[in-house]
Design brief:
Elements lengths: L2 H25 L10 H9 L10 H11 L8 H32 L8 H19 L2 H7 L5 H20 L7 H15 L9 H12 L5 H39 L7 H23 L3 H17 L3 H7 L13 H8 L11 E3 L7 E11 L4 E12 L5 E3 L10 H8 L2 E6 L17 E6 L2 E6 L4 E6 L2 H25 L1 E2 L20 H8 L7 H4 L5 E2 L3 H16 L1 H13 L2 H7 L14 H26 L1
């Protein structure tokens, strides 16, 4: 198949898939708002108000434009939801083109031409993979409501596709324009949700595989470190410290020069962009291409990130909804850092049972509107615990949760104990013998001296922390959601610790389902007829596994890229969020990017099936 013909059909089929997704989402959008933040986002977008930390200014601006097209106030939620539906359809379009790009590379490696049959298989792979993601439970639900995740998913799919466009034109003179565009879009995406930054490792590996023909283990390790460093610089330095330095300049201008609030941050912004512009100019004149590309990319990220200026601008007019009132740089900094939500340990810390020994304080500046000055104040930064209670990988950390919350998920040891009546006396059965029951043995006793007397607490062990991580955080809060989308979903009722009757995954194959859900015959009507009861008989899951193995064997480089997307937007988020038990709602929308990556493997599974069919029918 000639390249021009393939490109033409690639565009045609891609836009057909986009039309299917658009029609599906627009016909099923929420009539108003669904549970949790959707109502807030619709309301704040309509009048450009200030939502909860860390804010989503770009989403607010785009949604405001959408609401301006509403024929009446009644249709404002429809317009916000419709905007998300179209953004989600574009996500499907970019996913289609991403799959066809990688699939074509897979079938034309070593310089082989793309035959007509292979061209049809590539288009089929893209269509199946993209449409599979279109109708996944998680993404469809996210696509039709007024939340930020639909627009964030569109940015994720767009930057991955643009990086592949760069890969195709990397040897041409102006190929770096794609990287500059990606940097700008990443800056913009921060104004929607920072999940887009998790694509950075995959993008760095695309660059590495394209520029270096010889791949070594040392090179892979260095590139991994570089990808992590870029992620840390963006999320840990550029985002918080840009506003921090601007806030300190504003404090100096207000307190020392007696200028109006926000004068310093404006001067700092102009000075920052002047400095970046100078670096861009100098590196260009001296022919430092790599440094120039880095400087231009940082400048574009900062331009995109500048959407946060709208938060302070709107807060300054004191709209009806004005979360945290970030009308000055120090308040904006607190909002960006999500200070009100507190800290959670990641790799080292104390458990929920640890006694508080002391606490640390941090200073911050608060703008006094009456005095027209910044004042120094202090607040609790974090708690200090005795050294004996500090451990590696603390998964059960939330002091608001108790032993009975963690125990069902973490305890793995059982013992026999006496059954006792309401008075605490041992109960006896009809045979006159003491009654016994099997109970979970949880935690270990740890004693400490609190300054007055010795106290004892029950603290979870390291193995119980691991058990909680695998049973709750990884299995219940990720793999259960993953299997919802590619195996089947039992119903739409939120589960608790017991997932036999509600909230589990289900295949539709009674022999499998009965092993962990009990008999699936003669079910109550409300369970059997639940509209969210979807069974896929393992077919999407198996096709994805086939595609994973197929790509691993034939194209390990691009397999690494897809695997980075899958892990960073799935398992890595599980570790990072460190979720406590008893979430107020199902959190599957967080992991939509991981499911997006798996749908690529579903597409590649089509290539494997096509290859098998060709061998069978010659």
């Amino acid at each position: 198949m000639e390249q021009n013909i393939f490109k033409r059909w690639n565009r045609i089929v891609g836009w057909v898939v986009f039309a299917i997704a658009s029609f599906t989402y627009l016909m099923t959008i929420e009539p108003s708002s669904s549970l949790w933040d959707c109502g807030e986002f619709v309301a704040t977008s309509y009048k450009l108000e200030v939502g909860h930390p860390p804010g989503a200014p770009l989403f607010m601006l785009l949604a405001r434009i959408a609401t301006m097209l509403a024929p009446s106030t009644h249709y404002v939620p429809h317009m916000v939801n419709g905007m998300n539906a179209l953004a989600s359809a574009f996500c499907i379009l970019f996913l289609f083109w991403t799959i066809t790009h990688i699939a074509r590379r897979l079938l034309t490696r070593e310089g082989r031409p793309l035959s007509v049959a292979n061209g049809v298989a590539v288009l089929g792979a893209g269509a199946v993979g993209a449409l599979a993601y279109t109708f996944t439970d998680t993404f469809w639900f996210s696509a039709v409501e007024g939340e930020v995740y639909a627009l964030s998913s569109m940015f994720t799919a767009l930057v991955v596709w643009l990086m592949l466009r760069w890969e195709e034109e990397a040897d041409e003179p102006h190929a770096a324009r794609w990287i500059v565009l990606i940097a700008y879009l990443m800056g913009l995406s921060i104004g929607v949700h920072i999940l887009n930054l998790l694509t950075i490792p995959a993008l760095v590996f695309i660059y590495y595989f394209r520029k270096y023909k010889k791949i070594t283990f040392k090179g892979l390790c260095l590139v991994t470190l570089l990808a992590c460093a870029i992620l840390v610089v963006l999320n840990g330095i550029i985002i918080p410290y840009t506003v921090y330095f601007g806030a300190m300049v504003d404090v100096f201008f207000v307190n020392s020069l007696s200028l109006p609030v926000n004068t310093g941050i404006v001067v700092f912004a102009f000075a920052l962009f002047a400095l970046l512009g100078t670096v861009v100019y100098v590196t260009h004149r001296k022919g430092k291409r790599l440094l120039n590309l880095v400087a231009v990319s940082v400048t574009m990220i900062m331009l995109g990130f500048a959407s946060y200026a709208s938060v302070t601008i709107r807060a300054a007019v004191n709209p009806p909804m004005n979360s945290n009132n970030p009308d000055n740089p120090t308040a904006l900094l607190s909002m960006l850092n999500r200070d009100q939500y507190g800290n959670r340990p990641l790799l080292y810390g104390a458990s929920y049972a640890a006694p508080v020994e002391d606490y640390t304080e941090k200073e911050f500046y608060h703008y006094n509107d009456e005095k027209k000055q910044y004042e120094k104040r202090t607040t609790v930064d974090d708690y200090v615990y005795p050294d004996k209670f500090m451990h590696l990988f603390p998964r059960m950390w939330n002091y608001m949760k108790k032993e009975q919350d963690y125990k069902p998920w973490a305890a793995y040891r059982t013992k026999m104990d006496f059954v006792r009546d309401e008075n605490g006396e041992i109960a006896y059965g009809q045979d006159g013998r003491p009654m016994r029951k099997e109970v979970l043995d949880f935690g270990r006793k740890v004693s400490y001296y609190d300054g007055e007397r010795t106290r004892t607490v029950i603290e979870p062990t390291f193995l119980e922390n691991l058990n909680y991580f695998f049973s709750y955080q990884l299995n219940y809060m990720y793999w259960r959601y993953f299997l919802w989308n590619f195996v089947g979903r039992q119903d739409d009722i939120q589960a608790d610790a017991v997932t036999i009757t509600n909230g589990n995954w289900i295949t539709g194959i009674k022999a499998i389902d009965s092993l962990y859900l009990g008999p699936q015959t003669n079910l109550p009507r409300e369970m059997e007829n639940n509209k969210a009861r979807n069974t896929y008989f393992l077919l999407p899951f198996l096709l994805g596994i086939i595609g994973l193995i197929y790509q691993l064997n034939r194209d390990p480089r691009n397999f690494t890229i897809v695997m980075w997307l899958f892990v960073m937007m799935g398992i890595a988020l599980v570790v990072y969020f460190n979720s406590p038990p008893g979430e107020p709602r199902e959190r599957d929308y967080i992991y939509a990017g991981s499911f997006y990556a798996f749908c690529m493997w579903i597409g590649f599974g089509v290539l494997a099936v096509a290859e098998w069919l060709k061998k069978i029918f010659k």
